[in-house]
Amino acid sequence: MTQMTALDTLVPGPLSLAGHRLGTPQQAGALTMVPISGPAHPGFAPPRTGLHLSGVPGYGRVELTNTAATGVAIVPLHIGYIQDRAQNHALCRSAFLTPGQSLLFEDACCVQAGQGGHLTGRDQWFFVLPLELRARALDLRGLHDYPKLWDDIADLNARHGLPRRGHLEQILSRRRPMLTQFQSRLELLPGQVGALFLVADRFAGLEIAPDPAYFAEMWAPLTCFAYGVAAWHAEPTPPNGPPNGPRTGPRTGPRTGARGALRLRAGEDGTAGLRAALERARAARLADIGARLAAVPTGPVELREEDRHLDLRLSTVTAPHLAGQIVTRHDRTVYASLFAR
């Protein structure tokens, strides 16, 4: 398996990921992250420092502003905000914002079934909807119905052993210290523009950013919330141990044991021998991931253009095995947020 084979198998058809390369897999508990390097596309406003939640004028209505002096903002798919003394919301879709532009999203979903109030401009931080909610949220884009995700959030809470309520903060806020361990135990690499995520060794998502600065600002929302929630739930509870949570540091090769023990070959010893064994283990792990991706059921990929700005195209991707949105420029991928269905 070459480095591109896995990505080409996962995203067939007209979606070009030319130049993007898979790096050494890292693992924290049930979450595996494979860093992606590739071409940078300068001139885009990063999401945390460039975008501002400027208003929540009503339930299901969220206004974002591109406060950057230069650079088009690609609003991250399924971005949401936890706010002080205001109703928490998440978006069902991505969009383009030019410098200084404000955009009112009237099809946002409220992720807090009660309380809240008006935005005061105080503490706020953003997340990305957990994997378990993303396909449903994408299907609900364009529907002006603010409680449209409450039942799905309640089901998610129940699966996590929490009260069955449409309050996503039961997971994101109350479990935040546990979820943020994924951020610290996986290493963001210099020049990294994306990542392939697996939960319990199954494909979970593919995230590509325009440049390393953009991806660095998405690192915590993606690892902790978009994929960390599912990984946290997939973690087995050890005897007499704390419930769900990542309990291992980042791993750069396969698990120990039958699949991943480091073995020296005849004639190898010392540091050089260990280094060679480690490289083989890393290559084996990457090959294993490629085989798992190749085994994911595929089918026709449908692209539906949703928005455009100059030579940029924002499209919704629908396939039997994945869904999400992607931004292309002359058929080259600039941004992608694709997740398992």
UniProtKB/TrEMBL annotation:
<dbReference type="Pfam" id="PF20208">
    <property type="entry name" value="ARPP-1"/>
</dbReference>
<dbReference type="InterPro" id="IPR046699">
    <property type="entry name" value="ARPP-1"/>
</dbReference>
<feature type="domain" description="ARG and Rhodanese-Phosphatase-superfamily-associated">
    <location>
        <begin position="21"/>
        <end position="238"/>
    </location>
</feature>
<feature type="compositionally biased region" description="Low complexity">
    <location>
        <begin position="246"/>
        <end position="258"/>
    </location>
</feature>
<feature type="region of interest" description="Disordered">
    <location>
        <begin position="236"/>
        <end position="258"/>
    </location>
</feature>
<protein>
    <recommendedName>
        <fullName>ARG and Rhodanese-Phosphatase-superfamily-associated domain-containing protein</fullName>
    </recommendedName>
</protein>
<feature type="compositionally biased region" description="Pro residues">
    <location>
        <begin position="236"/>
        <end position="245"/>
    </location>
</feature>
